[in-house]
Amino acid sequence: MHPIEHLRYVARSGGGDPGDLAREAAFALGSLRADPANLVVASRRMIERHPDAGPMWWLCAQLLVSDDPSTLAWELADVLMDDPVTARLTSALPADGAVVTVGYPPTIADALVGRDDLRVWCADSEFRAGDLVRRLDRAEVAAEPITHDQLPAAVADADLVLIEAAAACDRRVLTTLGSQVLAATASSAGTPVWLVTPTGTRIPHQYVAEVARRAIPDDDGWGASVDDLPIDLVDVVINADGRSTQVGVALRSECPFAPELLRTGIV
Question: Positive or negative CA dihedral for 106, 80, 19, 159?
Fold first, then answer.
């Protein structure tokens, strides 16, 4: 596939794993070998189409400040393909534990598949809990969907709650829809909340603010595609370095700030 057609395919893709989208964009941008001006245009278009995908901001920011963006794009694609956060979460989960999660968080799902000793309760969001239950069933992991009225009891019985970040920094965390209610319920019950930050989701605060502006419309709260999760509801962060209770430190950005991504108009 020609790189430009590949980029169009990524731009048109809806939903799915943000890390997978960023990886496909990396493949396309690496093959495109665009000059700096065209790379800025292509990056802005990717962000426009997927404004709430933290890994896309992470990818484009690094390419825009690189002296060799084509080579770097392939390297970053490899990092996204084998995200170390999955293994860190898999090993950090308690033996024979019970956990609650919400929706279909891709990295959390990948980690849970490797832990058939766990019991997983799946709260629904955007009608995706069923997808997670079916995947875990195939991996012989005990999983069942729960309704909103079952949420308090499940959270109280669980060892921990797992929430996946869409974009995060040490000032603000944006997560899967439904996460705020789940985290608040966990806080009330005294159940620890673990925030999982897949590679590419820890980005500069300027980007997180822009993601929030685009994904949580001021004039239409029903149209939000992410939750704005209060940081004080988070007890543990899982990132590429492992498990940390130093929430602010663990949420520091893992990519540089490229102001070009926030500008509009002429390059």
Answer: positive
Residues 6+ apart with CB under 8 A from 202: 54, 58, 165, 168, 169, 239, 251, 252, 253, 254, 255
Q: What are phi and psi of 134, to 5 degrees?
A: -65, -40
Tokens of 141: 């992991």
Who's near 266: CB < 8 A, 6+ residues apart? Answer: none
The CATH number that domain 84-250 falls under is 3.40.50.10470
CA distances from 4 to 27, 29, 45, 81, 200 (A): 11, 9, 12, 21, 23
Is the pLDDT confidence value at 31 over 90? no
In whole angstroms, give the CA distance from residue 240 to residue 223. Answer: 31
Q: Find out whether 123 and 161 touch, Cβ atoms under 8 Å.
A: no
Q: Where are the domains of the chain?
A: 3-82, 84-250
C-alpha–C-alpha distance, residues 164 and 43, integer Å: 24
36, 40, 116 from 63: Cα distances, Å: 10, 9, 39
CATH of domain 3-82: 1.20.120
Residue 147: pLDDT above 60?
yes
pLDDT of residue 264: 67
Mean pLDDT of 150-170: 98
